[in-house]
């Protein structure tokens, strides 16, 4: 295990560098809303608000992931990209079903949800990333970041010593489980490979896009938390 960790550190890519360099990454993955789940002090009305809004987000996220799949099918020189992204789409199918059952468990109505400003802004951002002229390297970096924020956040709520309420364990497992972690590492590998080959112009665009994702994620957590 130790050898494995070391190997990972030695092979640190562009993505890991950016995640370390930008404090915003920690702000997005250790947000007060997540910390409140982890220490058990979470306000359940915040959780319910997050649940309803995230369902709306995920339905918008599907066409974005589909657009990344299209880019992969055209651009990719590695046969595995498509399988990884397709796996992501398949798990979104399960996720939508999960949201529906979770929402009924919590009495959160999913139809007629008033879409919050932060959600609308995030949607507009994703729509722009779906345009054909957006480079695959930029789109896959955004895709990785969106998934990684949830993975790192919810995995934190499952670590030893966390006091996550039992009724929220299932939510944390959805994104914090080891399989989702493995999937994020696959996305990270793809992103690193694309970025290594990218022009400096594309690299800059990808880094800026990475930061925009983090800002949107922080705004999204803020909204759940009732700070926005
Ligand atoms: C706002 C936001 N960001 C990332 C995710 C995780 N990806 C798919 O579920 C999510 N559900 N919601």
Automatic annotation (TrEMBL):
Domain Thiaminase-2/PQQC: 18-224
Family matches, as InterPro entries: Haem_Oase-like_multi-hlx, TenA_E, Thiaminase-2/PQQC, Thiamine_Salvage_TenA
SUPFAM superfamilies in the cross-refs: Heme oxygenase-like
CDD domains linked: TenA_E_At3g16990-like
Official protein name in the record: Thiaminase-2/PQQC domain-containing protein
Organism: Hevea brasiliensis (Para rubber tree)
